[in-house]
Amino acid sequence: GMKAEEVSGAGIGLSVSKKIVEAHGGRIWAESPNPETGVGTRVNFVLPKVISEKAVEEKLELGRKAIIIVADDDPQMLNVTSLVLESHGYTVLKARNGHEVMGKLDQVIPDVLMLDLLMPVMDGFEVLKQISEQDLTRLMGMSIIILSAVKEGSSRQRYELETRSPLPIADYLEKPISPPALLQRVEKVLQSKTKRL
Questions:
Q1: CA–CA distance, 71 with 117 (Å, rounded to integer)
Q2: What is the 8-class DSSP label of residue 33?
Q3: Inter-CA distances, 98 with 104, 105, 115, 145, Å
Q4: What confidence score (pLDDT) does residue 135 get?
Q5: Average pLDDT over all residues of the chain
Q6: Where are the beta strands (DSSP E) in 55-138?
């Protein structure tokens, strides 16, 4: 179905979204919803739907084992990342800032929290600090993956300076990342978690 949203931002996520959509055999394009005034931009994308019995079985199996919270303030990045994960059977809950992440963690403990660092209201660094300060036994089953345009070295250095602790994460992914690489890293984190149990 069609869904229109008014969003702000510099449009950096569009180039990342283009790579992700095209890597999945889809296409993405922009158009003006008001050609007379030239105000506003509408971004459309189409993804192919490929179904096989084996794919359905694999999706069901994966879907049973993993709930993922994806947190990103860029709506295009949030939607495309969620689509990639959902297309492989993962159950995805979306959050647009750290405050929404903490609200969702009160309701459900996901298998994976995929966290952007630069977000309004409450950024990813603050989310990590609050999680570390909470009752860790409640969140022990959750693995954290950073998905950010911020370089890994800079993030680790900042967090350690502010908290005197290492980043409490399972993996760090720098944007842009291709869908196959994203899925591979998520699966690797989930597999290592299964081995620990």
A1: 9
A2: S
A3: 10, 11, 9, 14
A4: 66
A5: 83
A6: 67-71, 91-95, 112-115
Phi and psi dihedrals of 143, rounded to 5?
Answer: -105, 140
Mean pLDDT of 23-44: 73
**Which tens digit of pLDDT belongs to each residue from 43-63?**
777 776 654 455 545 544 544
Non-local CB neighbours of 102 within 8 Å, separated by 6+ positions: 122, 127, 130
| Residue whose token pair is 């944007």 | 175
Give the CA distances from residue 175 to residues 17, 107, 109, 146, 150, in Å, rounded to whole numbers and listed in that order: 10, 29, 25, 10, 8
Interatomic CA distance for residues 156 and 142, integer angstroms? 20
94, pLDDT greater than 50: yes
Q: How far apart are CA 26 and CA 22, in angstroms?
A: 5
Distance of CA 108 to the CA centre of its chain: 17
**First-to-final CA distance of the chain:** 40
Helix (H) or strand (E) segment spanning residue 17: helix 12-23
Mean pLDDT value of segment 94-104: 97
154 near 124, Cβ under 8 Å? Answer: no
Domains observed in the chain? 12-46 (no CATH), 53-196 (3.40.50.2300)
Q: Give the whole-angstrom CA distance, residue 28 versus residue 61.
A: 30
Task: Kindly state the tokens that stand for 160.
Answer: 């350690």
Beta strands in 47-163 (DSSP E): 67-71, 91-95, 112-115, 143-148
